[in-house]
Design a protein that fits this description.
Length: 162
């Protein structure tokens, strides 16, 4: 999916987030390094660089992959490409890899699903004063999707590790 279509899809789904003033940063560079040479990077707050907590103790900004199920590694995101990374919201796309755990997890099979990923919400990171992290994740399935709680939802929102 092209970046423009990705941005429009995410904007349509999260229009209410925009109304709350969180913003997507669409049309702006995903990082200060992406600004044109000679221009000053845009500073939106002293904590402009949010992190995502892949698993307790593992902090990352713009990760290429990260684990959603830390206890057993049976659910993770990989091949991530971020189209926006702002203080209020990060968006990108990649692949979710999930173990079906059939007949049980050790004998299960991993399946891949294309997803749009949105990180949002903000909280201070315990034990790291001045470090803010995203607190929520929304996965938007763009094709096949895994079974979740007896159904096959198009989107899933969950809380990230604290």
């Amino acid at each position: 999916m092209k970046r423009g279509r990705l941005a429009l899809t995410i904007a349509a789904i999260f229009g209410s987030v925009l109304a709350l003033g969180l913003g997507f940063g669409l049309g702006r560079p995903a990082s200060a390094a992406a600004t044109s040479r000679g221009s000053a990077p845009e500073v939106t707050s002293p904590f402009a660089e949010r992190t995502v907590v892949s698993c307790p103790g593992r902090l990352e900004a713009r990760p290429g992959s990260f684990t959603l199920a830390c206890a057993d590694g049976n659910d993770y995101l990989t091949r991530m490409s971020w189209t926006s990374w702002t203080p209020g919201l990060a968006s990108g796309y990649g692949t979710q890899v999930v173990n079906d755990c059939l007949p049980y997890c050790a004998a299960g099979h991993f399946h891949s699903y294309p997803v749009l990923v949105v990180l949002w919400g903000s909280a201070a990171l315990r034990g790291n004063p001045g470090t803010l992290r995203y607190t929520k994740i929304t996965l938007i399935y763009t094709g096949a999707r895994p079974q979740v709680l007896g159904g096959y939802p198009g989107t899933v929102t969950d809380t990230l590790w604290t």
